[in-house]
Amino acid sequence: MHQLDLFSTSGVPHPTEAAVTRPVKVKAKASSKKAAVATTIPGKKRGRKSLKELSEDPDLIMELDKLVLDKQYYSISEVAAMFKVNTSLIRYWENEFDILQPKKNRKGDRLFRQEDIHHLKLIYHLLRERKYTIEGAKQKLKEDHKLAARNFEMVQALLKVRGFLTELKDQL
Known about the structure:
Blueprint: E1 21-26, E2 35-40, H1 51-54, H2 60-66, E3 74-75, H3 76-83, H4 87-96, E4 103-104, E5 110-112, H5 114-129, H6 134-143, H7 145-171
Antiparallel strand pairs: 1-2, 3-5, 4-5
Helix pairs in contact: 3-4
């Protein structure tokens, strides 16, 4: 039996079909199950990013510390851009963590204060950098929020000292 290539007229695969595979359903006989044929398209990756890909930017919190928070309120899109996450993740964290309570206007838009952004930094640190689960981070914040915040601040201070020392070492 011959296999029919639906994606190429010449029988030679297109050069752009080599990086990412995506299953395509093909009908076979009525009695057999559906078969999957894999095609590839470069640079196209669907779905959510893995934690490894997200943690490629370990200095995100340091960048946020350098960022001047001059406004009284920030929209959810601005906050999501600061943390380089989707707005849906910020809304999810708001539902899951009690310490995160942004104000809402009459329209229902979330308005984040500087205090809320500080809480988001702490949540981001626990979930993305320390690799806690949602339940583990909730428990950590419930047990002693002040202790978790103090530990977070100590880690940030040590990272600043480390950055200063590496700059000093590079200058020598």
